[in-house]
Amino acid sequence: MKILASAMLAPGTMLLAGLSGFVLAALLFALASSRRAARGRGTAPAPDHPHFWQMLLRKGGQKGGWSVAVLDGAGECLFLCGKAAQYLDDCRAQIGPALANLTREGIGFDLRIALSATECLWVTGRPVGRRAVLYFTPEAEDSAAETQLRREVAAYSALIRKLPAAVAAFGADRRLWAYSRAYAELWGLTEAELDRKPFEDEILDRLREARRLPEQGDFSVWKRRQLRQTVGTRETWHLPSGRSLRVTQHMGAEGKLVLYEDVSPQLALEAENSLHKQVQKATLDTLDEGVAIFGADGRLVLGNSCFATQWQLPESVMLRHPHYSEIAAGSSASLGPDSIWDAVAQGVIAAEAASIPAPRVLQRADGRSFLVTLSRLPNGTTMANFLDFGDLERFEAMLAEDRALPWPSNRKDGNR
């Protein structure tokens, strides 16, 4: 990339423009003086002498001469030197707007024009009096290393163009040098717009004008943060269209690679699952027995409040989704070892539902007895039910007390 950047700068162009501009300014001044003298003598103005100009330019310029064109205010050619006629025909359409500003407003320009896939031309426009002077400098042929580098860059760009993901690659100068078609489709940009290699801030400004970027309180601050990032980042952009993008930026010394991933369906699914779990937990919390659901990896997916109370698990631990072995270790440390969690482990790691242990009554180290029932759910998780016999005995005792009470009369006083 550094070789390409050096070639793009072409410092010799400015030096050439300065020297030839000085020569042409002197020629035009001499020509104007001779015409004023001719008018003073009452004779016809002297015609332009292009061959004389060519001779002077070639003697004062580099070996082989310069390619120079002098145009009047209407854009008509007054003088052509070297291959200027050919170059002007080849690139007139591409330099049209800049040339119009030069001839009308006297605004100079420096442009690099691609004549073909392998040939480029530097065109420098400068005002000299009321004339416009164009200097044409073909870009020097690449060395073997530069040619190979260009091929590699083109190959990488073609590869990125075909990626199914939305990807954009920016150089160290923040200029886009490669992108995928998915990137163009994501932002509604044409390949013609992107092929001219706009700067990153230009793209952000364009997308903001089209209301395709996340709304910001201060867009300029947000844009500066995007442009000045020096380390890789990952963030989620919520677009006005309702879509959500996960934006990952990989930084490097030579630029950065930005990956855009549409996570709208994933976020919607996560929200739906979260709501489903909340409904599930609210339903399980109405039960008088402890219920816990363990994933295939052995971690707690969901547990009701009765389960948390039975095993003395605070909410902070429940939210961490602990592994069943962690719960067993905590129970053993606080209450003493027992065989309850060994049975739970057998149910979780069972390859088939038929291998899950049958319901059984197991005693905890503190003397409380539980009816432990394990079952495999359709999604592959394992549900464990813990019915505390102590709670059941107390419940049955309460029922017995209720039955012993006299049944209240349904008749009111005075009714027979």
How would you sum up this structure in a few lines?
The protein is α+β, with helices and mostly antiparallel strands. It is built from 16 helices and 15 strands.
Explain the layout of strands and helices.
Blueprint: H1 2-9, H2 11-40, H3 50-60, E1 67-71, E2 77-81, H4 84-91, H5 96-105, E3 109-114, E4 120-128, E5 131-138, H6 144-161, E6 166-171, E7 176-179, H7 181-187, H8 191-195, H9 200-209, H10 219-228, E8 233-238, E9 244-252, E10 255-262, H11 264-284, E11 290-294, E12 300-303, H12 305-310, H13 315-319, H14 324-335, H15 340-349, E13 360-363, E14 369-376, E15 382-388, H16 389-404
Antiparallel strand pairs: 1-2, 1-5, 3-4, 4-5, 6-7, 6-10, 8-9, 9-10, 11-12, 11-15, 13-14, 14-15
**Helical content band:** 40-55%
Instruction: Find the count of extended strands (DSSP E, 2+ residues).
Output: 15
Oligomer: single chain
* Strand line-up in the sheet with most strands: 2-1-5-4-3
Mean pLDDT rating = 79
Write the CATH fold name of the largest domain: Profilin-like
Radius of gyration, CA atoms, in whole angstroms: 41 Å
CATH homology-level superfamily of the largest domain: YNR034W-A-like
What is the 3D form? rod-shaped
Whole-Å distance between the termini? 107 Å
What would you call the structural class?
Answer: alpha+beta
Low-pLDDT parts are: 1-27, 29-48, 58-64
For the record, the count of structural domains works out to 3
| CATH architect. name of the largest domain | 3-Layer(aba) Sandwich
Largest sheet: 5 strands, antiparallel
Tell me what portion of residues adopts beta-strand conformation: 15-25%
Name of the CATH class of the largest domain: Alpha Beta
Count every helix, treating DSSP H or I runs of 4 or more residues as helices: 16
